[in-house]
Design brief:
The protein is mainly α. It is 88% helix and 0% strand. It has a domain at 39-89.
Length: 89
């Protein structure tokens, strides 16, 4: 651990932020898994999950948990998967 008081505070703040960021990232991963599983079963449910997933990705990119380009890339990828699933059914 650091010796300087401000450095000690910084370590504690970074620890709190890391926990919060990991929670957001975990939630996004959960919605991604849910979306992919629903894509094969029911496209209507997958579409609802996609909307929630996009909102989570946008929120995470606004809070700088993930990079904006990463969020946009994931949204485009899942939109393409959803569109292909709609066309095939």
């Amino acid at each position: 651990m650091a010796n300087i008081k401000s450095a000690k505070k910084r370590v504690l703040i970074e620890r709190e932020r890391r926990v919060a960021n990991n929670s957001v990232k975990s939630e996004i991963k959960t919605y991604i898994k849910k979306f992919k599983s629903e894509l094969t079963e029911d496209v209507a449910k997958a579409e609802e999950t996609y909307r929630v997933l996009v909102a989570k990705l946008d929120s995470a990119s606004r809070e700088n948990v993930i990079h904006q380009n990463s969020a946009n890339r994931k949204k485009a990828h899942f939109a393409k998967l959803l569109d292909n699933a709609k066309k095939s059914k």
